[in-house]
C-alpha cells in the first residue's frame, strides 16, 4: 500500500495505545462503524504487536498499521505482526533503509526543514508533522509549502475537534492524526459506542 493511498483512507487517523489486545477487535469495528477505516496501533504498550496481529487476521478490511516504530527491529516486528504500513514519530536513515529493505511503507515524522529534506532526498513525500502544534502547527506547514511544494503531511500531536479544520484546509495536509476520538478511558471500560460517536462527530465537523 503506497503512502498516498494510506493518507487518503480517512481524514482522521486514530493513534492508539492499547493496554489489552482483547480490545483491538471491538475497537476496530467501532472505528469502522464511525467511518474510520484506518488504525495506527502503537508499539508503545506491550499489547501493541498482538493487537496488530489480531486486527490484521480477524478484520482484513481494516487498514491496520503500526505506530511509534523507532528502529529497524520495531519495523520488522510490526511487519511480521501484519501491519500494512508503519508510522514513526521521527525520521532516520536507518528506518528509511529498513522500510525499503522490508518493502513496507514508512510514514516518518518530521518537525524541521532538515528532516523534510532527509525525507524527500529519500523519495518520501508523505510524512507526519510531529508534534504538530508544538513544532509550529499551521504556520510551519504554510512555511514548508514554499521550499517543499511536493511534501504532504499528516499533522499529529495536539490536533483536536477545535483545530482539525485549520489543518485540513491546508493544501499540503491530507489527513490528521490524534487520540481525541479514541480516549483510553473509554477503551478501558469498553465503551465502544462512544468511540463510534466521537468518530462521527469528528467526521461531521470537517468543513473542507
Ligand atoms: C501521539 O503520538 O501520542 C500522538 O501524536 C497523539 O497526540 P495527541 O494525544 O495530542 O492526539
UniProtKB/TrEMBL annotation:
E.C. number(s) listed in UniProt: 4.1.2.14
Q: Which reaction does it catalyse?
A: 2-dehydro-3-deoxy-6-phospho-D-gluconate = D-glyceraldehyde 3-phosphate + pyruvate
Quote one Gene Ontology molecular function term: 2-dehydro-3-deoxy-phosphogluconate aldolase activity
Its keywords, alphabetically, are:
Carbohydrate metabolism, Lyase
Task: Enumerate the InterPro entries for this protein.
Answer: Aldlse_KDPG_KHG, Aldolase_TIM, KDPG/KHG_AS_1
| PROSITE patterns for the chain | ALDOLASE_KDPG_KHG_1
Say if the entry is tagged with keyword Oxidoreductase.
no
- Pathway it belongs to? Carbohydrate acid metabolism; 2-dehydro-3-deoxy-D-gluconate degradation; D-glyceraldehyde 3-phosphate and pyruvate from 2-dehydro-3-deoxy-D-gluconate: step 2/2
**NCBIfam families xrefs:** eda (TIGR01182), PRK05718.1 (NF004325)
Q: Whom does it interact with, and what assembly results?
A: Homotrimer.
Q: Which family does it belong to?
A: Belongs to the KHG/KDPG aldolase family.
- The name of this protein is 2-dehydro-3-deoxy-phosphogluconate aldolase
Q: Which organism is it from?
A: Halarcobacter ebronensis
Q: What is the lineage of its organism?
A: Bacteria, Pseudomonadati, Campylobacterota, Epsilonproteobacteria, Campylobacterales
